[in-house]
Amino acid sequence: MTNHNMSDLIEEYIKQLLEEEGLVEIRRTDMADQFQCVPSQINYVINTRFTVGQGYHVKSKRGGGGYIRIQKVELNHHGDLLSELEDWIDQKLSVKDSMAILQQLYKYDIITKREANLCLSLLSSDALKLLDKTTEEKTRACMMKRLFERLRYEEKE
Question: What is the pLDDT of residues 49-58, one digit of tens each?
Answer without folding.
Answer: 887 657 787 8
